[in-house]
Amino acid sequence: MPYTGIVKYHVKLSFDVDGLVERADIIGAVFGQTEGLLGPEMNLNELQRVSKVGRIEVDIKTTENTTSGTALLPMSTDVDTCALIAAAIESIDKVGPFDCKFKLDSIDDVRASKKEDIVRRAKEIKQKWSTKSVSEGDTMLSDVHEGSSGKVAEYGPNKLPCSSGIYDSPWIILVEGRADIKNLLRAGYDNALAIEGAKIDESIKDLCDKKR
């Protein structure tokens, strides 16, 4: 039957075997030698049947005549049951014909780890979206400000940057470039015209002749 329980704890153990064994031998010893130690309702087979224990994961490493490795049991029981199962597995002293020793390394609260991940991700989301919100707010304020103070237009055959108010204003402000016009617009002046170079365009001279 597939495991459908919600994992609460990871019971992690390490083991050393005085002989060459396979992963299936380790799993067989875990199930076989703990059976009946804690009563029928606490047998690993029964706990798996009711989705309290998941699939046991075993990693092994072998030398010329020894085997070592780790075993991980995903469990959805309370921590007391996890401790009992861990103690039962630590009592195993044989894998096949070989002496062995199991040792509990940790009982990890999976939910606590998930909570940390959730909090970390929530901080990332807050940072991303609050920054975006501020950026959008600044853009909106800028749009409102530009809308109230006019926009950059173009003047003459060479399409020189200018403020839209240069035609109606009795006088004009000559500036170097488009950026200067934007700065003056923000300051409330909409009668600026950009020279855009060292030489003054003839169209600028014509316009200036019409001003004070």
TrEMBL record:
Residues 170-212 form the Toprim domain. The lineage of its organism: Archaea, Nitrososphaerota, environmental samples. This is DNA primase. One of its GO terms (biological process) is DNA replication, synthesis of primer. One of its GO terms (cellular component) is cytoplasm.
